[in-house]
Amino acid sequence: MGKPYFPIESLYRMPWTIPDNGITWLEPTSQCNLNCYGCYRKNIKDSHKSIEQIKHELDFFQSQRKSDCISIAGGDPLVYPNIIELVKEIKSRGLKPIINTNGIALTKQLLHELKKAGVFGFTFHIDSKQGRGREEKWRNKNEVELNELRLYYAEMLAAEGGIACSFNSTIYSDTLQYVPELVDWAQKHIDIVDTMVFILFRYITPNTPFDFYIGNSKIVWTDIHYHSEYEEIVDLKSPMIVEKIREKFPDFTPSAFLNGTHKADDYKWLLSERIGNRDKIFGYTGKKFMELVMISYHFMFDKYLSYASPKTLRMGRSTMFLLSVFDKGVRKALKNYLKYLVVNPLRFFKRAHLQSILIIQPPDLMPNGDQSMCDGCPDITYWKDKDGKEKLVWSCRLEEPMKYGDFLRMVPKREKGTEKEKENVLHYNYNNLAD
């Protein structure tokens, strides 16, 4: 890839920390109606927590951490029998309930009831490696063909009205090619799709050059839930996704990030905010816009923003006219918008929208066996250890303490071969993928 093409000084470092964040992660159940390849959570039937236990976890969250929203995940939360009551409980605490789901169990009636209960938004996970569980018509579809399914859910939410709509997909080396088309699809539906999230695939594979331990006890790697017995590319990085998107959108520009715990220039969460309509993307906000939004929201509500409402995201024109003085990216978007109007002034009646594109780069393996996590992890969740001590822990690695009582530690294998050969086992050469 050569030198970085968006230097770290061009980005706003999101101010999220462990005690003061935009998001907190809640898992009312580990049961799911799909068994997706790439999922980090074991599917456990009848694993529903009681509503009393959930309330206790919410109490613990609020004693430890400021948050704007609660991401209700799992498992699939729509199979949780008390989901309506749970959404009401979260809403009553002044938090935004966001349901992370595959959508299979969502009906128009359930959606209506969830809206009455106070749901703020949905994030639908849809990708081509979700396995059996969906209708036959969706099997063996690629990412672009699955846009029909994404549109079904987006239109369902739009018909109900007032509910934020997001989609996420796990990105593998063989599905990376579809990312530009997904970003293009999102623009064509910018009025009803608020956010697209791309989560880079991470799994333990046969060529992972580490042994795994709990204390002094060695763990067989195939016993770990998130593993694949196939050789996989598991070190895709956020800049690679940006590079791929720019093949179709050359001006695509990130504006904010979260760094890694072990590398300051690891873009673990990389956020782009664009302004446009179904015809055209006028531009991308810069770091000053993101800083202004976060600081002002925290000043008014004593917490950092996570998700904005559809009503707010429809204010693309107001954003350009009011905030262009503060932000270069917004200023450029305004210039492009005015040129767009000069060609046909009637275009003024077409509303401009804000839309987020988020890239998430999960844990990265360091040469010494450490894992570089998301600094100020947004998806932190609840765990009570064997001694009864309650903790905030990484949701993406929760399977480790659930199964082994603690987080795994990794020790580099003693392999034969040169240091260069060892390095090549760990670090994937992206140029091979580009070829």
Written description of the protein model:
There is one protein chain. This protein starts with 11 loop residues before the first strand and ends with a helix. Strands 1, 2, 3, 4, 5, 6, 7, 10, 11, 12 and 13 form an eleven-stranded mixed beta sheet that branches. Strands 9-8-18 form a three-stranded antiparallel beta sheet, with no helix packed on it. A two-stranded antiparallel ribbon has the order 14-15. Helices cover 29% and strands 19% of the residues. The chain has a single domain, classed as TIM Barrel. It is of the alpha/beta class. The longest helix has 16 residues. The radius of gyration is 22 Å and the shape is globular. Helix 1 runs parallel beside helix 2 and helix 9 crosses helix 10.
Largest sheet: 11 strands, mixed
Q: CATH topology, which one?
A: TIM Barrel
Number of domains: 1
Shape: globular
Number of helices, counting only DSSP H or I runs of 4 residues or more:
13
The radius of gyration is 22 Å
User: Which stretches of 5+ consecutive residues score pLDDT under 50?
Assistant: 420-435
Structural class: alpha/beta
Approximately what portion of the residues adopt beta-strand conformation? 15-25%
Helix content: 25-40%
CATH architecture: Alpha-Beta Barrel
Distance from first to last alpha carbon: 12 Å
Overall mean pLDDT stands at: 93
User: Can you tell me the CATH class?
Assistant: Alpha Beta
The overall strand count is 18
